[in-house]
Design brief:
It comes from Massilia aquatica. Belongs to the YajC family. The protein has 111 residues and is of the alpha+beta class. It contains two helices and five strands; from the N terminus they run H-E-E-E-E-E-H. Strand 1 and strand 2 form a beta hairpin.
Length: 111
């Protein structure tokens, strides 16, 4: 009277085990990886390559900016370190990796 009748349900359909069924499962994951590669990984690799080529091209007389914001002229370049003259007869030694920007010539004179 208060309990409804329970009827048997139809047998479940066979699972789709074809190649397209498996591929459609992983398609969103593959698509996310491709988008992440083009939006995040590729630009980082390009920037790192530009930074490395800039560090390799450092020479005496170049005007640079360090990661700390210090501007100066390169006096000496070694394998891992760069000596920068930040004022008249005031050299400092910094790591090459801390150089962030190579300035155009005579930029320091205009400041």
């Amino acid at each position: 009277m208060f309990i409804s009748n329970a009827y048997a349900q139809a047998a479940p359909a066979a699972a789709d085990t074809s190649l397209m069924g498996n591929m459609s499962t992983f398609l969103p994951l593959i698509l996310m990886f491709v988008v992440m590669y083009f939006l995040m990984i590729r630009p980082q690799q390009k920037r790192a390559k530009e930074q490395k080529s800039m560090m390799d091209a450092l020479a005496k007389g170049d005007e640079v900016v360090t990661a700390g914001g210090i501007l100066g002229k390169v006096v000496k370049v070694s394998d891992s370190y760069v000596t920068i003259d930040i004022a008249a007869n005031t050299p400092i030694v910094v790591q090459k990796s801390s150089i962030t920007t190579l300035l155009p010539k005579d930029t320091l004179k205009s400041l």
